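for the recovery benchmark. tokens below, seq after
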């Protein structure tokens, strides 16, 4: 069944239209394909310190957020770093790409497709009014970003060919890799013409916008040292997807980085001792959380303080029923309520939380 159409305007945050959070304005910086150069990563670290709360907050769409923004010079700083190339299209540059593509695994190399799509998006005036929730993706065949709910996705079926997915369903339309960028823009333009009040493809009633459901591919969030052809890559998973400015600058020492939709960072080319040099400590996989109190006025608890980490546990702690930032993978649903939490629908008091997870 399609999701009911939205009845209010799209308020997806950007730099020019930040979200007014409890801890101050929140600005979201789009990184098509998650790609950020070393120079840009250092610039983001500078922005976090000079304009925000000092940290970079990774998002479930492979973007970066700055919280507590009070400095009016943020847009100028981001523009100088090449991170805000088109004010008119700022919020529609939502593009995922398989982060390990061309490094390890996958059926095709999708590197470069996100940048090509971004360029075409920004040169197409009609797409400036696309909802900020609309999501593009290029999946190299392993099923990682195709499982993140993109509105339109090219998923590789071989080195030079793929299939077009709409809201996770296979349309049966086969598209060559060379034509993938134009095919996704074609879908976005048609969506813009027929969408009415809908923000996402899944909200359209027309069965023509449906496909055959595709099971999510089996994959693991890139973490730790990763063997690749001719060397190593690294998957860095910061606690709650939050990088201090100092940590961001440390990552930049290893060149271009790829922000993933799992609130982690892939460094494509690193030495074997990368984690000793970074000094980040253990990789805390499994538990995630929304910002909680005091950053969000809607949250009922400081969920990050209450969050439980243990081997084998995959849980998401939410301060309210909105469940912001929840992962698309299977997880234990933990939602704050007065005096405790509801775990997969079962209420437990706060002092019994750890014993029930």
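predicted aa per position
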């Amino acid at each position: 069944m399609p999701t009911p159409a939205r009845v209010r305007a799209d308020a997806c945050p950007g730099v020019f239209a930040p979200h007014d959070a409890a801890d101050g304005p929140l600005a979201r910086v789009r990184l098509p394909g998650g790609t950020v150069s070393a120079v840009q990563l250092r610039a983001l670290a500078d922005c976090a310190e000079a304009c925000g709360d000092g940290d970079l907050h990774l998002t479930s769409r492979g973007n970066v957020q700055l919280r507590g923004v009070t400095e009016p010079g943020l847009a100028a700083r981001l523009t100088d770093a090449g991170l805000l190339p088109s004010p008119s299209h700022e919020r529609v540059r939502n593009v995922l790409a398989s982060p390990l593509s061309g490094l390890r695994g996958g059926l095709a190399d999708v590197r470069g497709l996100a940048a090509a799509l971004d360029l075409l998006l920004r040169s197409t005036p009609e797409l400036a009014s696309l909802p900020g929730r609309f999501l593009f993706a290029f999946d190299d065949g392993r099923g990682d970003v195709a499982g993140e709910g993109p509105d339109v996705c090219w998923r590789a079926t071989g080195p030079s060919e793929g299939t077009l997915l709409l809201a996770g369903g296979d349309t049966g339309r086969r598209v060559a890799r060379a034509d993938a960028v134009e095919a996704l823009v074609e879908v976005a333009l048609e969506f813009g013409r027929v969408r009415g009040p809908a923000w996402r493809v899944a909200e359209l009633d027309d069965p023509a916008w449906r496909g055959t459901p595709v099971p999510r591919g089996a994959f693991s969030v890139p973490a730790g040292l990763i063997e690749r052809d001719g060397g190593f890559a690294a998957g860095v998973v910061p606690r709650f997807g939050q990088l201090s400015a100092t940590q961001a600058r440390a990552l930049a020492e290893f060149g271009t980085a790829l922000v993933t939709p799992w609130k982690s960072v892939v460094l494509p080319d690193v030495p074997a001792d990368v984690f000793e040099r970074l000094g980040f400590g253990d990789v805390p996989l499994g538990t995630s959380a929304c910002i909680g109190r005091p950053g969000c006025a809607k949250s009922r608890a400081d969920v990050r303080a209450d969050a439980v980490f243990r081997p084998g546990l995959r849980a998401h702690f939410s301060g309210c029923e909105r469940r912001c930032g929840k992962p698309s993978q299977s997880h234990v649903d933990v939602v704050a309520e007065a005096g405790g939490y509801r775990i997969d629908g079962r209420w437990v008091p706060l002092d019994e939380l750890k014993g029930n997870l």
